[in-house]
Design a protein that fits this description.
- By secondary structure, the protein is of the alpha/beta class.
- The protein has ten helices and 13 strands.
- The chain is globular and about 60 Å long.
């Protein structure tokens, strides 16, 4: 799903993905070379210190403050292009899958979707940007069908993915991007960027657990389509705080323990397993809900986000879930020096959105 999409008059080989999160800003710059995506540079800058908080903590900075921080990041990461794609936070958007009447005429289908969307969007349509996508029949367990064989196509139903973003949110992002001297050709809700960068399963349903700073987003993805989504009000900053309290260490020390000491070191202090237990419990509930409703099994779970870089998280989660679990490696879809691979694999989950944005931006070249 995209908003305000467009094309530039001139094309550059280098493109940029900009992920504006609640706890940090992340950028990934790629270039296309012989049909492949080559990693040129990447960078992350925590927003916590800019608001008097610790690294890894969620913030609520003004557009001006975020703009200045983004300028710092672009400079420190030595970004050389202004052409970019920008993420829209999942929490600032509405995404829902609905079944609507199907019409073969595109203009009629558009009218139906826009009229029906009013029932699902809790604000005036004039205040939002609406995007929608008809889900291919093979991507859903509920196939578009007609009520009776003798009925006309007027009775056919189709699954439609509705996406809405408030105009104020888009204006805020545009202000930040323009202020930082960048030029965005599209704005994309972060889950679609993550899917592009981290999900390789072409057919079978998988679950994505994006452990952000303030919350965890859980998605069921089938054939590249978001079939079910849920926000869990616990994230990586809660894990850090639990380590800090139980281990009687500072937030900064706890953040280091989480990333470097791993699950074993953190849980030895007590506390964080309660946060993980809550996240995993809600994720399992979503998983069971989907499997029961659609009579299909989730084949794997993919971890992304800042919490996804917690050392040994994948191995820990495998003991909790009875299916395949892995940590996202979005940089695997890019060309990079071999000596950088261990580092890129380690930090990969945090850069899934930025990498996904850059990969889409490359498609414009």
């Amino acid at each position: 799903m995209s908003f305000l999409s467009g094309l530039f008059g001139t094309k550059e080989k280098s493109v940029l993905g900009v992920d504006i999160g609640s706890s940090s800003l992340k950028v990934v710059q790629l270039r296309k070379e012989r049909g492949k995506a080559v990693l040129e540079t990447y960078g992350e800058l925590s927003l916590g210190p800019y608001s008097g908080r610790e690294v890894g903590q969620a913030t609520n900075l003004s557009a001006e403050e975020i703009t200045e921080t983004l300028k710092d990041l672009l400079r420190e990461a030595k970004v050389t292009t202004v052409n970019c794609g920008v993420s829209i936070p999942f929490a600032r958007s509405l995404l829902t899958l609905v079944k609507l009447p199907y019409r073969a005429d595109p203009s009629e289908q558009k009218t139906i979707v826009e009229l029906e969307a009013r029932k699902y969007i809790p604000m005036p349509m004039s205040e939002v940007q609406l995007d929608w996508f008809i889900v291919p029949p093979e991507a859903r367990s509920a196939q578009p069908t007609e009520e009776k064989p003798a009925d006309s196509a007027q009775n056919a139903k189709v699954d439609v993915l509705l996406v809405a973003v408030h105009n104020d949110e888009l204006s805020l992002l545009q202000k930040i991007v323009t202020g930082a001297g960048l030029s965005a050709s599209f704005y994309e809700i972060e889950i679609f960027s993550t899917i592009r960068a981290a999900v390789d399963e072409p057919i079978k349903p998988v679950m994505v657990l994006d452990i952000g700073a303030a919350s965890t987003k859980s998605y069921i993805v089938e054939r590249g389509v978001v079939a079910l989504s849920h926000a869990i009000s616990a994230g990586s900053q809660d894990i850090t705080r639990a380590i800090s309290v139980s281990g009687n260490v500072s937030i900064a020390q706890a953040e280091t323990l989480k990333k470097e000491g791993g699950i074993a070191g953190a849980t030895a202090l007590g506390g964080p397993e309660l946060v993980f237990s809550r996240i995993f419990s809600e994720a399992r509930r979503l998983l069971i809900q989907y499997e029961t409703l659609h009579k299909k099994s989730i084949t794997s779970i993919i971890f992304t986000g800042g919490g996804g870089v917690t050392k040994e998280l994948g191995a820990y989660a495998k003991r909790i879930f009875s299916i395949d679990v892995r940590v996202a490696d979005p940089f695997a879809k890019t060309e990079a020096p071999a000596f950088m691979r261990p580092v890129l694999e380690e930090i990969g989950p945090e850069f899934a959105v930025a990498a996904g944005l850059a990969l889409r931006k490359l498609e414009e070249i």
